[in-house]
Amino acid sequence: MIKYSVRGENIEVTDAIRSYVESKLGKIKKYFNAEQELDARVNLKVYREKTAKVEVTILVDSITLRAEDVSQDMYGSIDLVTDKIERQIRKNKTKIARKHREKLPASHIFTSEFEAEETEESPAVNVVRTKHVSLKPMDLDEALLQMDLLGHDFFIYTDAEDGETNILYRREDGELGLIEAK
Q1: Is the pTM for the entire model greater than 0.70?
Q2: Could you say which residues form the signal peptide (predicted)?
Q3: Domain 2-102, what fold?
Q4: 8 A C-beta contact, residue 173 and residue 165
């Protein structure tokens, strides 16, 4: 069963839009067991320049699937985002099954029909470089300065106030994001 949460920014979510989202995202139910609870969060945004952004996040047990698309056509973006989610499921099913074999068998999440499908074996992960970092306490402004000085798109540091590990990163739109580890 999929629980939908459809939210709009600068757009009213009509019954037509809601039913279109539910019918398109309903296609992914075939990959999961019938008793599996899926939580689909859909954000629809319309910008001044008449572009539409569709963001979909699906939570399943310990797995998070996420995709987004920006275009002139909201319905087309919904289609593309659904296809992206399906590709993620197909691509990562083997990895998920392998990683959680002892903890959570793939049959707990995916249907047996999907497990029987041929899946492309993804190439082995090849780590080409390992870096060690010492996390020194600093505030957000100092972390931003350090990130800019290094020329990186992200910076890991320990917050001076609460002692927690944070990750500062530059988003695709040029703005900044902050991940606070708890």
Answers
A1: no
A2: none
A3: Double Stranded RNA Binding Domain (3.30.160)
A4: no
